[in-house]
């Protein structure tokens, strides 16, 4: 049966339990302003009853605190991480798209862009029409033509530097992922050391881990799985096995974590890509980490979209022939040599999920430069095994990365395509004239590389004279308009040094004749030059694309920012500390503690009466 002092035991259990509850509330109040702190709650439970030899059979034995638990809702945690990943992606993307948009700005005064420079060039050309023999006027036009080249050179340089910035930030993101993953694995170990076999929850360490996942979710998509550790009999041992996934791939399991490494790529995706672009691999398996897959997200995905985004307009074609060291494709997605964005060497191609690198390529083109077929000469260490050769024929070949976003490669390609088309049309008209010396003028617009190699596109001029139905073979090093990019677009140095070399008429004897100038002026607004439109509309076309992408990034950035606040508020309503609620709890537990004290006081009086005042006189 219950002891005479049983009531004191019950009162004592109440005192200690409500003391713990009050201390827990005090801890919540103390951390009301602590970032990432999760509200704790003492779980009170009636102690096991005991049997007594009386009709009522059993009596309660008081109260106990079974645990102090964090109050978290995993649903809101997951929603927060999902949204934070989207927010991180569009916040990062908006930052870079605004920079690209600024590069293309043209307000005609403080910022002179394409429209201003292009209009000035044709204004000077119009002036030249009235004074075709005036060397001062000629020099003015040629200088404005070089200003147009300089504009494209600077645009290419700006985009190239921005690509380098993205590349470095990718490495910074990977370093941050590795740092967070390592910290989480160490926390997992510490949490299990505290919780295994004790039933005590390592609340502060769990808060720290959750805060790290919050930070990680802005870089990549995250998810986790936490299961209780059990013995062979299915009994819980108190510890847990915590696994963390990024972009669907496991990065942390318990006290172990996997490291990502950045390696400078030996291949290029696009002709104008910078060297040493980083690719991400798992250190343990050497497998590539996909930062742009459908399950990917966060700022890392945005960086790849900006750095490598080609709007899925990469080179593609159907494999018609596969030898050990070559692949030939037809029905190509890019059908003209002036639109080609393939690297001349060290390019990456993929067939049936197998990647190869090539040393060079050859193309069959007609008189208009239309591509009939392309043969890739593979690197000697990338021979095609016989089974793969059979499989390769009939499959689709993809060159580059094929990312569904308009990033730096996309805008670089547009710049290249414009200068190639415009230069070819300008040079073709100019080649029909005679300069002041009575000679055929040299190529006006040419490509001058960093090594001072000059391309005058003599092979393009040669295949342009092919009879209908015939093709010519060119390769990645041929002297064609493929070699021209926005980076090397230039006016012929000889023409700049001797303005008499520029032709304004088909007959130099007729000094007042300007038929060549008249034809050149049509390039401004009468002839189709770029994407089915006139040359002067180039900026409008590009700006419309940039504006759409920037506006989209801005819209989604605001959307996910607002959602983040909404979800954070919902999350805080469960796990955050509410001052009013804690104040009520403090009063409630104080009252309960006072009542427990009253129990002790009453029991003390009863026992005093029993012991001191009861007995035989």
UniProtKB/TrEMBL annotation:
Key word Magnesium present: no
Keywords in alphabetical order: Bacterial flagellum, Cell projection, Cilium, Flagellum, Secreted
InterPro entries (UniProt xref): Flag_bb_rod_N, Flg_bb/hook_C_dom, FlgK, FlgK_helical
Record-level GO cellular component terms: bacterial-type flagellum hook; extracellular region
Compartments (UniProt record): Bacterial flagellum; Secreted
Residue ranges annotated for the Flagellar basal body rod protein N-terminal domain, each copy included: 9-38
A molecular function GO annotation: structural molecule activity
Domain (Flagellar hook-associated protein FlgK helical) ranges: 97-310
All residue ranges annotated as the Flagellar basal-body/hook protein C-terminal domain in the record: 572-612
TM helices/strands, residue ranges: none
Pfam families in alphabetical order: Flg_bb_rod, Flg_bbr_C, FlgK_D1
One of the GO BP terms on file: bacterial-type flagellum assembly
Domain of life: Bacteria
Family the UniProt entry places it in: Belongs to the flagella basal body rod proteins family.
PANTHER family, alphabetized: FLAGELLAR HOOK-ASSOCIATED PROTEIN 1
Identification of the protein by name: Flagellar hook-associated protein 1
Taxon lineage: Bacteria, Bacillati, Bacillota, Clostridia, Lachnospirales
């Amino acid at each position: 049966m219950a002891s005479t002092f049983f009531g004191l035991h019950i009162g004592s259990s109440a005192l200690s339990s409500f003391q713990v509850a009050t201390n827990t509330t005090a801890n919540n109040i103390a951390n009301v302003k602590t970032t990432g702190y999760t509200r704790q709650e003492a779980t009170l439970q009636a102690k096991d009853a005991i049997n007594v030899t009386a009709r009522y059979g059993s009596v309660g034995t008081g109260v106990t605190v079974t645990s102090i638990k964090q109050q978290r809702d995993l649903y809101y945690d997951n929603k927060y991480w999902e949204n934070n990943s989207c927010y991180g992606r569009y916040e990062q993307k908006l930052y870079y798209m605004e920079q690209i948009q600024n590069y293309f700005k043209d307000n005609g005064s403080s910022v002179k862009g394409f429209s201003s420079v292009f209009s000035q060039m044709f204004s000077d050309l119009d002036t030249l029409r009235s004074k075709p023999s005036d060397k001062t006027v000629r020099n003015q036009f040629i200088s404005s033509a070089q200003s147009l080249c300089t504009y494209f050179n600077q645009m290419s340089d700006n985009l190239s530097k921005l690509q380098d910035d993205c590349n470095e930030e990718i490495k910074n993101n990977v370093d941050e992922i590795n740092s967070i993953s390592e910290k989480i694995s160490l926390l997992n170990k510490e949490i299990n050391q505290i919780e295994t076999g004790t039933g005590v929850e390592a609340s502060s360490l769990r808060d720290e881990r959750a805060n790290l996942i919050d930070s990680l979710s802005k870089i990549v998509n995250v998810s986790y799985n936490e299961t209780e550790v059990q013995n062979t009999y299915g009994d819980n041992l108190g510890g847990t096995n915590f696994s963390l996934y990024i972009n669907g791939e496991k990065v942390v399991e318990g006290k172990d974590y996997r490291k990502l490494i950045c390696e400078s790529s030996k291949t290029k995706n696009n002709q104008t890509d910078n060297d040493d672009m980083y690719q991400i691999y798992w250190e343990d398996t050497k497998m590539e980490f996909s930062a742009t897959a459908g399950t990917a997200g966060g700022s890392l995905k945005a960086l790849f979209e900006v750095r490598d985004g080609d709007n899925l307009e990469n080179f593609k074609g159907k494999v018609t022939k596969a030898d050990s060291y070559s692949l030939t494709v037809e029905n190509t997605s890019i059908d003209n040599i002036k639109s080609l964005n393939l690297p001349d060497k060290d390019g990456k191609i993929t067939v049936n999920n197998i990647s190869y690198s090539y040393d060079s390529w050859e193309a069959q083109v007609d008189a208009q430069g239309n591509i009939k077929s392309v043969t890739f000469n593979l690197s000697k260490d990338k021979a095609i095994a016989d089974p793969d050769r059979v499989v390769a024929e009939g499959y689709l070949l993809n060159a580059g990365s094929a990312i569904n976003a308009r990033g730096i490669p996309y805008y670089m390609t547009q710049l290249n395509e414009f200068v190639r088309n415009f230069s070819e049309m300008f040079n073709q008209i100019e080649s029909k004239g005679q300069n002041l010396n009575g000679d055929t003028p040299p190529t006006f617009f040419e490509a001058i590389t960093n090594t001072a190699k000059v391309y005058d596109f003599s092979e393009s001029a040669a295949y342009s004279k092919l009879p209908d139905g015939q093709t010519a073979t060119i390769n990645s090093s041929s002297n064609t308009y493929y070699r021209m990019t926005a980076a090397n677009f230039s006016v012929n140095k000889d023409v700049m040094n001797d303005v008499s070399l520029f032709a304004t008429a088909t007959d130099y004897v007729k000094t007042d004749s300007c038929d060549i100038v008249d034809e050149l002026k049509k390039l401004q607004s009468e002839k189709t030059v770029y994407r089915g439109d006139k040359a002067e509309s180039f900026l409008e076309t590009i700006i419309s694309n940039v504006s759409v992408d920037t506006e989209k990034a801005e819209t989604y950035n605001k959307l996910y920012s607002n959602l983040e606040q909404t979800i954070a508020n919902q999350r805080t309503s469960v796990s955050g500390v509410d001052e009013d609620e804690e104040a009520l709890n403090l009063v409630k537990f104080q009252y309960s503690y006072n009542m427990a004290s009253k129990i002790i006081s009453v029991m003390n009086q009863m026992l005093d009466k029993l012991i001191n005042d009861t007995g035989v006189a």
